[in-house]
Design goal:
There is one protein chain. With 194 residues, the protein is α/β, with parallel strands linked by helices. It contains six helices and eleven strands. A hairpin with a 2-residue loop joins strand 2 and strand 3. The strands form three sheets. It has a six-stranded mixed β-sheet with strand order 3-2-1-6-9-11. A three-stranded mixed β-sheet has the order 8-7-10, covered by helices on one side.
Amino acid sequence: MGAKQSDELSAAKKELRRRCLQLRAELSESERTRASVLLAERILGHQWYYLSNAVLGFAAYGSEIDTDEILEETLRQGKALYLPKVEGEELQFYRVRSLGELRPGYKEIREPCGNTEQYVYDAGNVEKVLMLMPGVAFDRMNNRMGYGKGFYDRFLWNRPGLRLRTIGVGYACQLVEEVPCGEQDTGPYQVICV
């Protein structure tokens, strides 16, 4: 990709990110609550969730869709729950046994302390793992745009089996016609926006 194309892609992403974050921030409390309940129903009833013994989730940050009900139910059912922690330029997932363990970390996002079992990718066992992925915008081709740091892109880049069990989640206002993508962008296998 040439410099001009790269600049155009960057500008398109910046504008889409601004627009989607604004729409997300303008949602009412009742719209947020309703969407979180619908998302929990969709994920907890999903075949991939049912068949999983481990979930790589995320603790919602700012105006992101609330995932706490999904995370709590995962723990209640005795499935292994791993949540992300930013370490330098990389994302690592650590086992969590209670949401009370989470502490403000990178950009004040609730993260595990990083002193528990770390998720280790195993291509032979990946069909038992479900990954939930936050984002700013998604499209119907399962493209995703995050906040611009590429943490999830890098994490999934060399884990193709895990990508096949990844669901991008968000509000309906985050589903757009087309997400501008570059070669380094790694989207989820499925998208659920409610």
